[in-house]
Amino acid sequence: MIHGADPALAERAIADRDPLPGTRGFAGRLRDGRLVRDVLGRYPLFVERSGEGWAFSPTDLDEPVSFPAGHVDDERVFSLPDPPVFETEREAVAAVTDALEASLALDSTDLVVAFSGGVDSAIVASGTDAPLYVVGFEGSHDLAAARESASAMGRPLTEIECTHADIERAVPVVARATGRTNAMDVGIALSLFLVAERAREDGYGRLAVGQGADELFGGYEKVVRVDHRVTADSVRGATREVIASLPDQLERDILSIRAAGVEPIAPLLDDRVVRAALRLDGPMLATEGERKRVFRRAAREFVPREVAERKKKAVQYGSLIARELDRLARQAGYKRRMDDHVTQYVESLLE
To answer: String of b and e for 140-172 (b: at least 16 CB within 10 Å)?
Structure first.
């Protein structure tokens, strides 16, 4: 069984050693019994530590280990290509625009968009008339940004205001589903789970997300600065390092959404978008004054300019979920002077 692609397509990609054969990722067992996971790990896959057994969810195994992205059984078959850089920014914007347009042809049936008001989720929303859902605590940046962007786009918005009770109820669910208890992972997972949970309650079965844009297009400060957090000495090299972190991040995100009984859709991780992004370099990716430069210019073809240029915080901070998770940990006696006090709090909820 393969998630994300027809087995024959995956087999052709393996035969051709083509890492980007025109999908949004795939993982599972081939018809000959071999296991495969695409180059960016866009679908989770796990094996027993003993080597006996595999599953799409770690909760289905006794000692789950992530199956490595780009592998077929024990062999690395897929690696990201290193294509030539676009000669001009104009050429780059046109190519990224074309790739986005192709990837955004979304079927609105049974679909909700996770909408935080930033350019990533706004571009995804532009490809469908599906409802827009945002989550956050009262007064959060994400609720305000989503209202402004939805208004600029002429779209209605469903707001999900978090409470401490929501966090306390959801923490054990996402921690068990993802196998993670650290503050950052749990904070991100909570935001996705709560949106997906509301979507399911409202009768929807799929959630479109903007995952991948920051990694592919230069959305991180460490990429702009090429600082101690990366080993590369160029913006392009740093971007490729960040892209390599996608399998681990997507595993968390997908498992969190599925824990609510909803299937994620990530159009910005379409192979066509990835191919275009890999041809960007230097200021096409990011400058001191502007991250995701070419991506934002391409976005103007899909969303109002003020939405394309909006700066936004990471979801766990913009929603205030990280702040309130920390507050709950301290109220429960896990003070900041303690090592990993939020992790200790999360683990206490699992006992």
So the answer is: bbbbebbeebbebbebebbbbebeeebbeebbe
Positive or negative torsion for Cα 18, 19, 23, 28: positive
Q: What confidence tens digit (pLDDT) does each residue in 281-328 have?
A: 999 999 888 899 999 999 999 999 999 998 888 888 889 999 999 999
* Strand, helix or coil for residue 324: helix
Nearest-angstrom CA–CA distance, 143 and 134: 7
* Strands lying side by side in the sheet with 27-29: 2-3, 27-29, 35-37, 71-72, 75-76
Contact (Cβ atoms closer than 8 angstroms) between residue 142 and residue 122 = no
H or E stretch including 10? Answer: helix 7-16
The answer to whether 111 touches 130, Cβ cutoff 8 Å, is: yes
Q: Which domains, ranges and CATH numbers included, belong to the chain?
A: 2-76 (no CATH), 89-322 (3.40.50.620)
Q: Which two tokens stand for residue 189?
A: 């997972």
Count Cα neighbours of 343 within 13 Å in the Cβ-side half-sphere: 10
pLDDT at position 241, please? Answer: 93
CA 139 to chain centre: 24
Enter the pTM of the model: 0.94
